[in-house]
Design goal:
By secondary structure, the protein is an alpha/beta fold. It has seven helices and ten strands.
Amino acid sequence: MIRLRGVSKRYAPEGPCVLRQLDLQVAQRAYVSLTGPSGSGKSTLLNLVGGLDRPTEGRLEVAGQDLGALDEDGLARFRGTHVGVVFQFFQLLPSLSLLENLRFAMDVVGAVPRAQRSDRARALLGEVGLADLADRLPSQVSGGQQQRAAIARALANEPSLVVADEPTGNLDSASAGRVLDAFDAVVQRGATLVVVTHDPAVAARADRTVQLVDGRVVTDVGVVS
């Protein structure tokens, strides 16, 4: 699903190297946690594999696409077709209900037929335990419920890859546990899941843990194939 060969990232031509000559492979349906201290390059790596940014050097392939060869429109199409993103602060549209947030994600991409979008949104909310809250605004539900809605939204367009940046960072332990259950379901659906985290409970649920320090992989433990 993901292959990096000699990937480096700088944010300015003479700036420091945030990622340094990374070689990494991630199999389809893998559940990978990215760990390491702040500033180690975890979020930068997540942005690269999610098609949100480009490497400065090296080759990056995701779902058979060479992301470095795509222009901005091509990257946008790639993200819409292949990637679901879960943000730390949920990023739900506040004026739309949970159901409408999911439906809007489908409206933007257009991959799901219009007549099926509401039913699909309700089914996804049901899968993360929010069927009874579908018509509520984000402000009317808890942080953990918002995060589960964000996971459902990330699945709206049937992505092959889901990326998440510190998804439990602002949640209590009970809410975080429900979010981790929802992530298990993401992998069971057949998607690859890559999660940046400082939370040992998240890393413990993953099949594989990759630790970064100063833009390099220092440990890689778990299933690699």
